[in-house]
Design goal:
Blueprint: E1 5-6, H1 7-14, H2 16-21, E2 24-27, E3 30-32, E4 37-38, E5 44-47, H3 52-73, E6 78-79, E7 84-85, E8 88-89, E9 93-94, H4 101-117, H5 128-137
Helix pairs in contact: 3-4
């Protein structure tokens, strides 16, 4: 039976401090989450916030946390476009009224609350047809 190891476990075997800083890995040149199972000899690189790839991961995840916060605080707000950009990230939201300065403070506090929940996240890759069906069931026009 082949043994496998996750990217997180590789980082932990190198050092505890690296396992705390690790954000993602490259396995044979392909970016993967830290929970990716490695079951064959591979070339592995571990990325932290000091690396371009790590910083992009932080920005990507933070954009998702922003979307979660807005949807928790303002149910019915539709998340539209939200890419990572060179200096950070942004999200466009579709809603009837604009956000106020007070709303932005609430959103920031909700984001901190979400981070403090320390929920485990993982990447999912869906077939296009499955993603379309998922959002149709949620009442989104695709």
């Amino acid at each position: 039976m082949k043994k496998s190891i996750s990217g997180f476990e590789v980082a932990e075997k190198i050092s505890k401090s690296l396992s705390k800083q690790a954000l993602l890995i490259s396995v044979d040149g392909e970016l993967k989450d830290l929970n990716h199972s490695i079951s064959k000899d591979s070339s592995i690189k571990i990325f932290t916030s000091k690396d371009k790839e790590g910083l992009e991961t932080i920005r990507h995840d933070t954009a998702h946390i922003l979307a979660m916060a807005v949807q928790e605080l303002f149910p019915g707000t539709q998340v539209t476009i939200g890419p990572v950009i060179e200096d950070g990230f942004y999200y466009d939201f579709a809603r009837k009224e604009p956000f106020t300065t007070e709303d932005l403070e609430k959103i920031e506090n909700k984001m901190k609350e979400i981070v403090d929940r320390d929920e485990k996240t993982y990447r999912e890759v869906w077939k296009r047809s499955d993603a379309i069906e998922h959002f149709k069931k949620k009442g989104r026009n695709i």
